[in-house]
Design a protein that fits this description.
Length: 458
């Protein structure tokens, strides 16, 4: 059977995407119009097959290849290869190695105190703002998440984190600016020079950290560069991989936390439940310990619901190596399979009233009713995000620190409009007013009666 989809246009599909207000709007329209499997023109790949049904996605979950041409814009960042498009046989050992560090509890525990200190520094700064700000959540939280991954990957002492953060921002502004045709200040020569210097600084920093590790022979499974050295990888490959991890991690977590605060700011009952839980679990402590995180179950549900409604990485892509049977259809070898994570998350068959923010969807009972791939903010299969577990720890910690200390309210009249910029961004940031919460339980906001202390069931 032929895969349904709109007719071919000479502009490669750009006009249709623009007319729908972006790739996301276009995906939603395509799937509403043509069903769960759609063939469409994807700029940069000629044609692609998009799949918004979590059960059909299972048939693609083994595919271990990304379409190189869609990642070509990142090529200049890497000297020996971009992890994201390594061939399957080369990729598999790197994935195992990365997971052994990034997904392991030792690395989370080892970096937790430093992450907490960074989160508290931001909270202190916000607390000092007159009249509650407003604060630009995305700007502040993505800078913080880049800072956290720098510390995690490079170690707090061996690198000058501010200069690494600045260099990374420089490089990304240039490459993403090219991809999304966003104007970047300066002549092409000036920009090339700035980007070249920033990239050289990043490479030299990673090389220095590698050299220090080699000389002191320190290795353990909580340390990314140490583990890569121990595995016998060459310095240039290690450097490329560390940059790829930083690239993948740099904004995603900060964006996830911003969207969660945005949603909680618009749903005071849910925000209050999170605050109650924090008071219950932390008591009068301002920050959590690592072991507290697993007791913050409602906070985790709110974060998961936010990752559903605003997945920071909204799309994924694969390339078939052989023909693939997909329900009634057959996808040929060499085709681009497009993963519209956002459309999968809004599929009304699995998510009733999909646009509504309802953390209760993520109770274990509700989750068990859904197909495995209905919620995929970290992707799927052998190319899914190796940083998922670390990202959840970081995001829960940040939310716990911020929501224990502050209430967040939307700035009246400020429009929050999602746009796709490699991650799912808000066009004019997410501006919110922060006000201190009094420590401890049962403090009512002005104008509301104080809550009664909870009674134990009799
Ligand atoms: C909330 C935060 C994050 C989200 C939503 C996220 C999401 C994603 C998604 C959607 C992909 C592509 C998956 C696919 O194609 O199936 C990805 C890839 C990746 N992510 Fe994350 N990510 C997050 C944080 C992180 C962090 C903190 C790290 C590392 C410390 C990380 C490391 C990676 C790497 C290395 C890849 C490339 C995977 C590969 O090709 O082997 N991510 N991430």
């Amino acid at each position: 059977m032929n895969i349904p989809g709109p007719g071919t246009r000479s502009d490669g599909g750009l006009g249709a995407i623009a007319a729908a207000g972006g790739l996301h709007g276009y995906q939603l329209w395509l799937h509403a119009e043509y069903g769960p499997v759609v063939r469409f023109q994807l700029p940069g790949a000629e044609s692609a097959v998009s799949i918004a049904d979590p059960v059909l996605l299972e048939a693609t979950a083994h595919i271990d290849r990304r379409p190189e041409r869609l990642f070509a814009f990142l090529e200049p960042l890497f000297e020996e290869g971009n992890l994201q498009v390594l061939p399957a046989d080369e990729h598999a050992p790197w994935r195992r190695l990365l997971l052994s560090v990034l997904a392991g509890r030792p690395s989370h525990e080892r970096h937790f105190a430093r992450f907490t200190a960074l989160a508290s520094e931001l909270a202190d700064r916000w607390a000092g703002l007159p009249d509650g700000g407003p604060v630009a959540l995305q700007k502040d939280l993505t800078t913080l998440s880049l800072r956290m991954i720098c510390d995690y990957a490079l170690g707090g002492d061996s690198a000058d984190p501010d200069s690494v953060v600045a260099a990374f921002e420089e490089v990304l502004t240039e490459y993403l600016g090219r991809l999304y045709q966003v104007p970047v200040p300066g002549t092409p020569e000036e920009r090339a020079q700035r980007t070249g210097q920033a990239l050289a600084h990043l490479r030299a920093t990673v090389d220095r950290v590698i050299a220090v590790h080699r000389s002191d022979g320190r290795t353990d499974r909580s340390d990314l560069i140490g583990a890569l050295i121990e595995a016998g990888e060459r310095p240039a490959r290690i450097r490329d991989t560390v940059l790829a991890v930083m690239l993948a991690a740099h904004h995603t977590t900060g964006v996830a936390v911003s969207w969660t605060l945005h949603l909680l700011g618009r749903h005071p009952e849910a925000a209050e439940r999170v605050a109650d839980e924090l008071d219950r679990v932390l008591g009068d402590r301002a920050v959590p310990e690592y072991a507290d995180l697993r007791r913050l179950t409602y906070l985790e549900m709110a974060l998961k619901e936010s990752l559903r409604l605003y997945p920071p990485g909204p799309y994924g892509a694969r390339e078939t190596a052989e023909p693939l049977a997909l329900g009634d259809y057959e996808i040929p070898a060499g085709a681009v399979v497009f993963y519209p994570f956002w459309a999968v998350h809004l599929n009304p068959e699995h998510w009733p009233e999909p646009e509504r923010f309802r953390p209760e969807r993520f109770t274990p009972q509700e989750s068990a009713k859904r197909p495995r791939l209905a919620w995929i903010p970290f992707g799927l299969g052998p190319r899914s995000c190796e940083g998922a577990a670390l990202a959840m720890v970081e995001a829960e910690l940040l939310l716990a620190v911020l929501l224990k200390r502050f209430r967040f309210r939307p700035v009246p009249g400020h429009q929050v409009t999602p746009i796709e910029r490699f991650v799912l961004w808000a066009a004019d940031d997410i501006r919110m007013l922060v006000s201190p919460r009094a420590p401890g339980p049962a403090v009512a906001p002005p104008g509301r009666p104080a809550r009664q202390p909870r009674r134990s069931p009799s």
